[in-house]
Amino acid sequence: GNSVTQMEGPVTLSEEAFLTINCTYTATGYPSLFWYVQYPGEGLQLLLKATKADDKGSNKGFEATYRKETTSFHLEKGSVQVSDSAVYFCALSERGDYKLSFGAGTTVTVRA
Amino acid sequence: DVKVTQSSRYLVKRTGEKVFLECVQDMDHENMFWYRQDPGLGLRLIYFSYDVKMKEKGDIPEGYSVSREKKERFSLILESASTNQTSMYLCASSLNRGGYGYTFGSGTRLTVV
User: Fold this and answer.
1) Cβ atoms < 10 Å from Cβ of A48
2) Which of A42, A45, A98 sits opposite B97 (nearest CB)?
3) Is the pLDDT of residue B1 over 70?
4) Residue A103 to residue B42, Cβ atoms within 8 A
5) Contact across the interface for B102 and A95, Cβ inside 8 Å
6) CB contact (8 A) between residue A98 and residue B42
7) I want to staple A50 with a disulfide (CB 3.0 to 4.6 A). Which of A22, A57, A87, B17 is the partner?
8) What residues of B are in contact with residue A4 (Cβ under 8 Å)?
9) Is the torsion defined by CA of A54, A19, A49, B92 positive or negative?
């Protein structure tokens, strides 16, 4: 079956620091990959996505590259802000499937 | 702005009660989902529906049922609430397959005492 493994948190950073959250996946086919973000008290929002190998998704300064050879989709941001404090979820969906499979989530706290 | 609305932000129920969690979307989406969110476990799919009156079990359906009588409304039912069902419940909807275009509600935090 499909599964997503992401690095455990919590992660605490200072403003302007570099952020990396590791995500690896197991899938039977050729999944699409996603990063979702959950700000305090809110539902999840799509942050970025990639649909095939070597695609790079990007949004709000965040980037992630679909690496088929390492089955990874690591999230990076070069300079974080306090407003980036949130829980980040890596997720995948097989083509033609209805469902998303999520990782456990990584809590990120950015201090001023 | 498109929305998925969950009827309650916080609920406290007693063990053995029948509990209804309601979710309404205004986007005319075909697909609707119920997930539960627990620390360290991420989101786990309970049930989903791809059409009115249709439902499919997700990964953890035990102890839950669902109802979708109208396209815009998807209800999660805890037939006899137990303390291990204390959790955050998230509803979502999507137009297509493949994980695209999911919109999530803000969640209902259910405590069973």
Assistant:
1) 19
2) A98
3) no
4) yes
5) no
6) no
7) A57
8) 42
9) positive
The span from the CA of A108 to the CA of A39, in Å, is 10
Question: How many residues can be counted in chain A?
Answer: 112
Both tokens of residue A87?
């829980």
pLDDT 10s digits, A65-105: 999 999 999 999 999 999 999 999 999 998 777 788 999 99
The answer to whether the Cα torsion of A13, A36, A39, B83 is positive or negative is negative
Radius of gyration of chain A (CA): 13
- Which residues lie closer than 8 Å to A65 by C-beta, 6 or more apart? A50, A54, A55, A56, A57, A73, A74
SS3 A66: coil
Range with the poorest average pLDDT among A33-42, B22-31, B70-79, B98-107: B98-107
Q: How far is CA A4 from CA A101, B27, B28, in A?
A: 7, 29, 30
Residue B82 has pLDDT above 80, yes or no: yes
